[in-house]
Amino acid sequence: MADPLRTGPAPGRVTFEEAYSRGITDELPPPPRRARALPPTPFALRGAVITPQGAWSSGYVTVADGRIDRVSRRRPTSVPVLETDGVILPGLLDLHGHPEFNVFAAWEPPKLYPNRYAWRRSTAYKQLVRDPQNALLSTVPPQTQTRYAEVRALVGGVTGIQGAASASSSASAEPLVRNIDRWAFGAHRARSLVDLPTGSFGKESFDRIMAHIAAGTVNAFYLHLSEGRRGDAVSTEEFRRFVDLGAATPATNIIHGSALTVTDLHEVADAGCRLVWSPQSNLRLYGETTLAGEALRAGVPVALGADWLPSGSTSLLAEMKVARRELARQEHPVAAADLVAMVTSVAARVAGLDEHLGSIGVGRPADLLVLERHHRDPYESVCLADPSWVELVCIGGDVTYGRVDWFDELSGGAVGSTVEDLVAWGKPMRLDTGFQSPASGATPSLTEIRALLTAAYPPVGPIFA
Predict the structure, then answer these.
(1) Secondary structure of residue 141 in the 3-state scheme
(2) Phi (first) and psi of residue 68, to 5 degrees
(3) Which string of DSSP letters, residue by residue, matches 449-464?
(4) CB atoms within 10 A of CB 15
(5) Can you tell me the distance from the alpha carbon of 166 to that of 173, in angstroms, rounded to the nearest whole number?
(6) What 3-state DSSP class applies to 238?
(7) pTM tops 0.90
């Protein structure tokens, strides 16, 4: 089937469609190693702790040299302890998004669509998203939009995202949060595509990805597939082409799959595929979403992604609530612990990074989130949370975002051009957009990022809303 949206890009200019559909098909060069801004001394956090073995109502997580040094029910005596009274868990992983488009406010679709190709060619979408994005690509510096989106993710407790386009997130600069389909922990073992190859177009890149999967050098392949309503002919044909191309592999992460039938889901389960589910966006665009309950019954690992702000959730925490309601509607109610796993341990496994991320364990990078605790069950407290409950986020032990008093205490009173105070949903918080920068001024502050975006496009969607 010919791609109904394929057009040639304007000479010398990256267009919306190119940025949207480019994907990551080849190994990227490694980003430069940069100086760290670790807290000056080891520290411990006390609170309810979600461990791989279960949730503790009270425990301690000690962080030293960027890694988790100890996880214990007993109070450490050799390091200062921060009493959080909250829930301590791994940083959340958002496995599907288009971060550069999260500068736009939520879009109200004027109707339901049969598949993603239909809304991508609609006049309303062209006016509300595509044209503004083309204007931004030619007026703001590269990475500005993705930096803004990374702040949005960070303040919602997310420490790793998938989907940043090459046009706006470059391997030549360190990301603010982990871009987990790019370089991670010394290797680039992920690839991504928005669309399957059509005829010879894109086939060479696709074949290279398949060769790397076969060789074991790629362990996560993110692919948008059959995004539409069940029974839609375009989505059905796309799935058969997916199977015929040999794309169903144990490394394949199917994004959306909303048009897949029960039979289709069992077929991809037998092939070892995984699913990345974005129910909010599906429901708003198509009026239905993936049969995720059937996928779980078939043994398919399911992770979540907030997609993008125009049609998706405002945060991954919000997406969890939509997923929970939808699974209950599908008569597959999910336990709170299993829902939390979809954005932590299961997500890390789907991303091929479970040796490093997704759980709290000794020797692992200290990617940590502390949430206010509002329920006796720590898992349930996480499921009820929204971004206003975020108290602290650490990435690799670096204090990136947190309560002003905690940030001061843990960072040794760090100051700089990238450290700024914010009012986040009525709470005084502090953010450091340059926590990994080699020198002051090397990375723009949120204030500078906002100024660049709003000068070019005044109706930028707010972060704290």
Answers:
(1) coil
(2) -75, 120
(3) HHHHHHHH-TTPPPS-
(4) 18
(5) 12
(6) helix
(7) yes
